[in-house]
Amino acid sequence: MERKRESEIRAGWMIKSLLAAYVTSCAMLLGISFLLYKFDLSEQAVEIGIVITYILSAFIGGFLAGKQMKVRRFLWGAMIGVLYFVFLVLISIGVYRSSFAGTEMAIAFGVCLAGGTAGGMLS
Questions:
Q1: N-to-C CA span, the chain
Q2: Considering the chain, what is the average pLDDT of its residues?
């Protein structure tokens, strides 16, 4: 019974950490949209902003997960990074009816994994 309760608590914190990562993404993407509207940013500047959004969102989710789990924090952070990436792919498939291209997908996966792992390690 104790084991089941512990896994429920972990699942709850994982969901909260992912939710924090998604809220961070939404806020940052809205900010990028505003900057694009006001300052007519180049495509390269927008792409850099999106990569920074991936890193910071996964970092925040990994940081929160690591803070709560207290054991193997880097692993929990990495898991948040992977789950965040899966969310990105699912949204991409849902909105565009296709996924990232091969190289873009590998870069996005690496960035999300690294951000989540770094967040978990620094928590």
A1: 29
A2: 89
> 48 near 111, Cβ under 8 Å?
no
Virtual torsion, Cα 108, 111, 113, 115, nearest 10 deg: -140
> Residues of 60-82 as b/e, b for ≥16 C-beta within 10 angstroms?
bbbbbbbbbbeeebbbbbbbbbb
* Alpha carbon distances (Å) from 71 to 6, 7, 54, 76, 120: 13, 14, 24, 9, 10
Flag whether the pTM goes above 0.85.
yes
Q: Which residue has the tokens 């699942």?
A: 11
